[in-house]
From TrEMBL:
Keywords: TPR repeat. Pfam families: TPR_10 (PF13374), TPR_12 (PF13424), TPR_8 (PF13181). The keyword Magnesium does not apply. TPR repeats lie at residues 271-304. It comes from the Eukaryota. InterPro entries: TPR-like_helical_dom_sf, TPR_rpt. This is Protein KINESIN LIGHT CHAIN-RELATED 1-like.
Length: 573
């Protein structure tokens, strides 16, 4: 069972004080107080500290909003003051106009400050309020302000890890933008790309490909050949194709993107593309070409960014993975150590996310090298780096799930259960309870429960995992059938022999239809079913060993061969 995530965690837009710029050719909606006379400014300043009736002054709202923006510009230490100004500005706008564009825009500022203060629930509340008060039929200006509200709300949901709600908001914003600007406007292309990136985050690669194609089509229409915009689109399309296993199309997109970058003299970007080309060659087992691409990128990064830059560490990790796969374990270990040396003393500007991503990938290599304890230490460091950072809930959940698998492998079943439980809690809170990834984690948590003799809890997790994987992967998928096998074992252990027999008969039928009667897996299922039927005939003398014998042993194994760097972890059922 393989769980996919983006190879290096995709960098969503940083959401500090994020305010979308008013659309081009639109008049600003918040008023401009630059032409206010000194006397008027003095009068307004006095009203700031007077009673609530002063909020009815039509000049007060724009002035307070300007003060809020000025406080934001002065740095994060002034955010509380900026929030106070922005909230009072919103009250003034509400008193003067009741609702409308000015108030909605002010609420966007309030929400942005709440987000920077980590008060995301309050930010969401203000943005939803700003969206509800606007009617797009009142003009294009209103429509574009509502579009900005939806996009900012999507960003905020993304920070909470609720990717499904985030994508819904982006799609709602896109519909408004297309209605106002038309479907081929360059600004629509940027929103389509935003949606494609969001779908990649959610591992919805078909949807991501759809929006990325739209972006590419619009940029071809409006940009010159070999433009930087088209190159960026092709790099994203290559990432999507690689995630789907379409390596040849991915390679084609990367080569075209590299040509565009060469035409524009973007040496560092060319090197980054060379790394991606190396990844494709590695997936295709074209190892010599992969080494050549990685070494080209390494030379450029060392000369332009320095030998201790995180980009250099990333290439070291790729080379370590390559040498592991080609059986050169000493070289693989050496490159891992070089990368760890860089991460131990990061250069200024290196983000916690970059370091955590690198540690996670090195951990996977150490695990493959049969050094689980060292791999666990790296994963624990990665979790500490990411804890408390908005928008990293899903990444942390994936790492914790990987830790759970590794704890399980070394026999630390209590720690495994704790890691899985923490991962499941985060995924539920982030709206991931319907994804295949969530189903995989539930299956593994069920296996940990089996080892702790929490059989009823294990059955609950297997039942939920079965429902999810049937929907997301299909009835015949081997991952789904593996969960069915585990569920049959737990039912047998709970004394629900008839339910267990019914499931095993179903599994046998599915495997025969999918694999044929001569397949070894089909023979295994027949033997398991025969054993259970035989045992069911001796109810009073049941030996209680069927759980150990019937549990799908392949579920307990990590997938060593053919490991892909996409996910925090992978399974085979």
């Amino acid at each position: 069972m393989t769980v996919l995530t983006v190879k290096t965690p995709h960098k969503m837009q940083s959401f500090g004080i994020f305010l979308r710029e008013p659309p081009q050719n639109e008049t600003t909606v918040t008023g401009d107080h630059r032409n206010t006379s000194p006397a008027m400014k003095k009068t307004i300043k006095k009203t700031i500290i007077t009673d609530e009736t002063s909020l009815e002054n039509p000049d007060l709202g724009p002035f307070l909003l300007k003060m809020a923006r000025d406080s934001i510009a002065c740095g994060s230490e002034n955010l509380d003051k900026a929030l106070d100004y922005a909230i009072r500005a919103s009250k003034s706008f509400e008193r003067v106009s009741g609702s409308g564009v000015d108030l909605a825009t002010c609420l966007h500022v309030v929400a942005a400050i709440y987000s920077s203060l980590g008060r995301l629930d309050e930010a969401i509340e203000e943005l939803e309020r700003s969206i509800l008060m606007l009617d797009v039929e009142n003009g294009s200006g209103v429509g574009m302000v509502k579009f900005c509200g939806y996009m900012q709300l999507g960003d905020t949901y993304s920070m909470t890890g609720m990717l499904d709600r985030s994508i819904f908001c982006y799609e709602s914003g896109l519909k408004i933008q297309i209605d106002v600007l038309g479907k081929s406007d360059p600004r629509v292309a940027e929103t389509c790309r935003y949606l494609a990136e969001a779908h990649v985050q959610a591992m919805q690669f078909d949807e991501a490909e759809h929006f990325c194609k739209k972006t590419l089509e619009i940029h071809r229409e409006h940009c010159s050949p070999a433009s930087l915009a088209e190159a960026a689109d092709r790099r994203l399309m290559a990432l999507i194709c690689e995630a789907k296993g379409d390596y040849e199309p991915a390679l084609e997109h990367l080569v075209l993107a590299s040509m565009s970058m060469i035409a524009n003299g973007q040496d560092n970007e060319i090197a980054a593309i060379d790394v991606s080309i190396g990844d494709i060659y590695l997936s295709l087992c074209r190892f010599d070409e992969a080494v050549f691409s990685y070494q080209k990128a390494l030379t450029v990064f060392k000369s332009t960014k320095g030998e201790n830059h995180s980009s250099v560490a990333l290439v070291y990790i790729r080379l370590a993975d390559l040498y592991y796969k080609t059986g050169k374990l000493r070289e693989s270990t050496s490159y891992c150590e070089n990368a760890l040396r860089i991460y131990s003393k990061p250069v200024p500007g290196t983000t916690a996310g970059e370091i955590a991503s690198g540690l996670t990938e090195i951990s996977a290599i150490y695990e493959a090298l049969n050094e689980p304890e060292e791999a666990l230490k790296l994963l624990q460091k990665a979790v500490k780096l990411l804890e408390g950072i908005p928008g990293q809930y899903r990444t942390v959940a994936g790492i914790e799930a990987q830790m759970g698998v590794m704890f399980y492998m070394v026999g630390r079943h209590v720690d495994a259960w704790k890691s899985f439980d923490s991962s499941v809690t985060k995924l539920r809170a982030g709206g991931e309870r319907k994804s295949a990834f969530f189903g995989f984690v539930l299956n593994q948590m069920g296996l940990a429960c089996v080892q702790l003799y929490k059989i009823e809890e294990a059955a609950t997790h297997f039942e939920e995992a079965r429902e999810i994987l049937e929907r997301e992967c299909g009835t015949y998928h081997l991952d789904t059938l593996g969960v069915y096998s585990n569920l049959a074992a737990t039912y047998d252990a709970l004394g629900r022999v008839e339910d267990a027999i019914r499931i095993l008969e179903y599994i046998l039928k599915m495997r025969e239809e999918k694999l044929g009667t001569a397949n070894p897996d089909v023979d295994d299922e027949k033997k398991r079913l025969f054993e259970l039927l035989k045992e069911a005939g001796r109810v009073r003398n049941r030996k209680g060993k069927s759980l150990e014998n019937l549990i799908d042993s392949n579920s307990l194994k990590m997938k060593k061969e053919g490991r892909r760097r996409w996910g925090a972890f992978s399974f085979r059922t």
